[in-house]
Amino acid sequence: MIPSIHKRGSETIGLIRYFYGPGTEEEHIDPHLVAAFDPLTPDPGRDPKATYEQLQRLLDQPVNALPASKRPEEHVWHLSVRAASEDPILSDEDWAAIARRMVAATGIAPDGDEQACRWAAVRHADDHIHIIATLVRDDGRRPRRHNEARRAQAECRRIEVDCGLRRVAPGDGTAAKRPTSAELHKAEREGREQPAREELRETVRRAVAGATSEEEFFDRLASAGLLIRKRVAPSGDLLGYKVALPDNRNGEKEPVFYAGSTLSPDLSLPRIRKRWSGDSDAASRSDSAPSAGSSGPEPTGPAPTGPAAARRSAATAAWQALLIIDHGDDGQAAAHIAAAGEVLDALAKTSAAHTRTELREAAFAFERATRSHIKAERGHDRALRHAARDLVYSGPALGRGEDGATTAMVIDMAFFLVTAAAHWHAKKGHAQQAAAAQEAAEHLRAAYRAAADVPLGVLYQRGRGLSRTLRQRQTVRLRQAVPELADQILAEPGWHALAATLADAESAGHDPTELLTEATARRELDTAGSISDVLAWRLRRMADLPADAARMPEHTPAAAKDGSTVRRSPSRHDGPRNAR
Hints:
It contains 22 helices and 10 strands. It has helices at residues 12-20, 52-64, 92-105, 148-163, 181-190, 196-208, 214-223, 260-263, 269-277, 282-285, 306-327, 330-350, 353-366, 382-394, 401-428, 431-464, 468-481, 486-491, 495-507, 512-521, 531-542, 559-562; strands spanning 2-5, 32-36, 76-82, 119-123, 128-134, 227-232, 238-244, 258-259, 553-555, 565-567. The longest helix has 34 residues, at 431-464. The chain is elongated, with a radius of gyration of 29 Å.
């Protein structure tokens, strides 16, 4: 159940006419009163003798009793309460009880207060009611409405429990503002995919991802096609900004601008600057795009393209961040979770078409998980923010070859990163953030399936082609390194891909047993749909093996004895598709 306290107004009669009228966006069906401050309140919907003006005069009476100079300019209070689509249709009596609870909780009409504000609740649809009140009590005083929005939310959570309705996760006041009904209807009317507010928030978040200076940030906004209006102090200092879509106009045909802070609390200019303050080398990086390459040793095999190297680097940064979220202090964990949102934004912006939609949905969902009341200690998240920057500047990735395979690799790691964020938020009691991270994980799971299908199919066939001796050797190593997981892994279809990776690591001069031990010891694998898939990607990243094994030399029977190899032709035969 969602309560919405609307902007206060000055005309009681106008709101009454809207309640009882035909509706501007949604059709109003059988508008009628379900509850009011006085049981004898006239109902223009059901009583043919009652008029809008009678109801207006009754509600406005305490306001008009004051001297004109003492009357509040905006005395009309408006609250709507909407049930979830899956909730049962409530009766008028149910809605009447809900209305009384809401005006009591918000301070409009506390229980037992005979001098409280006057109010009326109107129903013109199955799933919601509107409550109108005038903000002068019968004794001439103003109501005490401190924290009314938070109290309305808390009361709705109690109503959900009492009435057996869908339970909405409680918030903590850090969520971005939802689109208004008018914005939603305007988007539908104009055929927009999403309301302007949400489109702008998504675009601004992508512009922030990995940016290190105001100049770079505003250049990205301009490149995205947004209109920008800066707020400058007399001293010349930049105080804030607003953005607008060129084709989103008001009734006067003027662009509708939104301040960054109204799009999301962390998109105000001061909050964005805090991200940059942690980068000690921000000034040196702001004038030129960084190299997309990893700082580690080059992978064996063909040199990867820029997007591939950026994805491999991002996977490494995500792995390090995951360990900090699990074991670091709260401020560091909060910073890494916020920076993880930048990585998801950058991935969504630069990935190929077959993964882009799910990655975009993952980034959109995870946005809610990037903020809480725990203050992020900026600077600790530098590696993740630089990874996001590298992803942006490396350019769009192909959906095949090393680009496609490293996309699967980084999505695999991002899945565990957002899952760790969900667990962290759940431990802190951040219900909405935990739910958002879980939703993002499901979208990443779907994106992973699309990205990993071909490269895992290649590894699967490569593993099936290993000699019996070489396969047995990998089985022995598996049982030595992870005896408690060996039987489960050997039963998975992905075991062939892992066996091929172990053989590849050995050919590259690594100790496969040590790699396996390290890959499994540093973090749990309970959330993995396929442990063998996860370990294959971890080992290929740790050993700097090409993520795309299509052009790697094939292991031969001789290789089992002396390490010699021959080239094999690229294969795109799909192995079994494993659930993430």
